[in-house]
Amino acid sequence: MWTLFGGYKLVSLLVPTAISLIFLAFHPAAFEVQKPRHKAPDVIIYSGTNFTGNIKCNVFFPGCTPVCKQLIGNVKSLQSTKGTCMKFYTTADCSGAPVSYRSAFKMFESDGRGIDNLTDTPAIEWKAIGDCKQETGVPDGSVALFPKKLYQGKPCNVAVTSKCNNVCTGGGGATIQKSQSFIANVECCSLYASKNCSGDVLHYIRKGQKGYGWEDYDTAKYFKRFYRISSIGPGCL
Ligand SMILES: *[C@@H]1O[C@H](CO)[C@@H](O)[C@H](O)[C@H]1NC(C)=O
Ligand SMILES: *[C@@H]1O[C@H](CO)[C@@H](O)[C@H](O)[C@H]1NC(C)=O
Ligand SMILES: *[C@@H]1O[C@H](CO)[C@@H](O)[C@H](O)[C@H]1NC(C)=O
To answer: Is the whole model's pTM more than 0.85, yes or no?
Structure first.
């Protein structure tokens, strides 16, 4: 899955900062020139893997920023700093969720500089990147399980409460309605393969992952387990 990346150290970002501070120490006038300082972009997307390429587009938060025209369908890497949370959309104004929604992503320490290779990922569809306050169309504190891929069809919204909640049943209360995509609009929860939150946890939605969505469980072997989601409980890692 493309959200699981790691590797780089922030050192490479810190070195140029240190150099410019030394420069400023010896050239106080240059400091004046730097004012008023513009805010650094929250996210930078590139047309090449590994934060390279001819085209580069800055994204500023808060709000919703359309992907630069030349980069639509062509985003190959993404750089951001630790702690930044972003949401991806297939509409230019971050609207039309959830069908147009393509997950949230939060930079953790292990993500290093960012995502170095977005080739053959949903990034091909991005038209806008918003901060994590942008709407997903899913009720707050619940997980929406969709009967079709790409968040299509009428979802079963499962509230995440202090007790366990089974996913919607297919009729007569017996059969669990299996999902093919989901959006977790909740900070923390545990997904189970069995009813009543019995048995093993399939996956945890971690703190900071509110808004995460999986649009297609077939994209990676690990995510095929989501077809078995049968109940959802509180608690996470
Ligand atoms: C990016 O560069 C690093 C360091 O040179 C390398 O280890 C990594 O494999 C590269 N990744 C891609 C996607 O090119
Ligand atoms: C980037 O990912 C694609 C698709 O998985 C792969 O074919 C390609 O070799 C990767 N590029 C680099 C530089 O690692
Ligand atoms: C779930 O709980 C209900 C009510 O307590 C019980 O009737 C049912 O057998 C349980 N099912 C499983 C799979 O644990």
So the answer is: no
